Design the sequence.
């Protein structure tokens, strides 16, 4: 391991840009920490912390000037790999017929700077769903295979975080996702983990980042940065900070057989009680880093000579989401919330070989009425009489 100083972070962004990457990282905008393109490390949220709770999110000024000691913001890396809206093709009238033109532009080469353990796990979930299943998304695959990932070990979790109980953090894991079957496009050599991982420290030695390469190209980038060897005390201090974060989670997911619990409580009155608070606004699915559902929309100009097909995110909280043969399957808020939670924590295991939740806590913080899925699951576990594991 080596130590990268504050100035080395500037050089990291420069090296990635020199190698043709568009660097994406956290920055402050609109009173939140959002993900955007960076041209300098100075745009990172140095000195900003985040206070979160059910239905609450606000920034506050830190005294230590740290850049990555803040919990998840409203956005995730999903928006760059699986865009919220994209054009699939267009058609133009050509005499008596139409000429169809596919939208097949070369995707940008992104470098993600500041990917936490929960969000790297979320990318792996999307890999299983969109890239390694029976029906892979070629657009997702092209974007994904060129990604350079700079992970960040979390040392200051937020009140809504519960990644420890989901096995996704606070340390960034280098392990590849488990296989989920299917005959889809296989993973690229860079899909399993990170290229570089940082652990931020601000102490008597100054502001620095313990850094380790996780891939060959990560090592190549690291070789171009101003570093020094890490001392035993620095390695131990970083490991202690991450271990301390694991005991400071604001939430936990009950340790139970959740697929069995959700199946056993399908007719529970709890769903109606949740629905009495839920606005079915779909905020939870929009901020979730693993929700992947989409729908398509066809549009034409006023002349009828030009048409386009667009794909955009959809949500199981939308009334029209379950529309089929003249009616909606899930008309009540209770049935739609149950569909979301049961799929995320239950039937996702059957489809994709793991949970659809990574414990980032975004759905709790950005729910307008503060519904806490860990509390709701805990109530269902109690109702089902499930013994903790």
Sequence:
């Amino acid at each position: 391991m080596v130590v990268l100083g504050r100035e080395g972070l500037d050089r990291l962004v420069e090296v990635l840009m020199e190698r043709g990457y568009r660097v994406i990282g956290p920055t402050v905008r609109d009173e939140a920490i959002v993900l955007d393109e960076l041209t300098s490390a100075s745009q990172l949220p140095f000195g900003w912390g985040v206070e979160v709770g059910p239905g609450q999110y606000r920034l506050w000024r830190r005294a230590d000037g740290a850049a990555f000691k803040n919990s998840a913001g409203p956005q995730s890396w999903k928006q760059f790999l699986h865009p919220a809206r994209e054009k699939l093709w267009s058609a133009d009238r050509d005499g008596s017929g139409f000429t169809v033109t596919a939208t097949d532009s070369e995707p940008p080469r992104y470098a993600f700077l500041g990917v936490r353990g929960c969000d790297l796990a979320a990318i792996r979930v999307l890999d299983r769903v969109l890239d390694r299943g029976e029906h892979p998304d070629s657009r997702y695959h092209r974007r994904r295979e060129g990604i350079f990932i700079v992970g960040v070990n979390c040392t200051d979790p937020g009140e809504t975080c519960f990644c420890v109980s989901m096995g996704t953090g606070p340390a960034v894991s280098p392990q590849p996702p488990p296989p989920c079957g299917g005959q889809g496009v296989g993973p690229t050599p860079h899909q399993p983990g990170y290229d570089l991982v940082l652990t931020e420290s601000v102490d008597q030695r100054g502001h620095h980042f313990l850094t380790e390469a996780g891939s060959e190209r990560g090592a190549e980038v690291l070789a171009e940065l101003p570093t020094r060897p890490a001392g035993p005390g620095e390695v131990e201090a970083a490991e202690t900070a991450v271990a301390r974060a694991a005991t400071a989670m604001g939430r936990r997911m009950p340790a139970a057989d959740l697929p069995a619990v959700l199946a056993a409580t399908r007719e529970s009155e709890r769903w109606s009680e949740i629905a009495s608070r839920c606005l079915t606004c779909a905020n939870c699915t929009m901020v979730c880093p693993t929700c992947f559902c989409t729908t398509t929309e066809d549009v034409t100009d006023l002349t009828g000579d030009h048409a386009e097909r667009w794909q955009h995110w959809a949500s199981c909280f939308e009334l029209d989401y379950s529309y089929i043969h003249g009616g909606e399957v899930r008309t009540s808020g209770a049935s739609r919330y149950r569909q979301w939670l049961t799929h995320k924590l239950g039937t996702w295991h059957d489809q994709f070989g793991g949970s659809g939740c990574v414990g980032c806590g975004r759905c709790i913080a950005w729910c307008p009425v503060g519904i806490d899925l860990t509390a709701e699951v805990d109530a269902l576990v109690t109702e089902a009489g499930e013994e903790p594991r």
The radius of gyration is 22 Å.
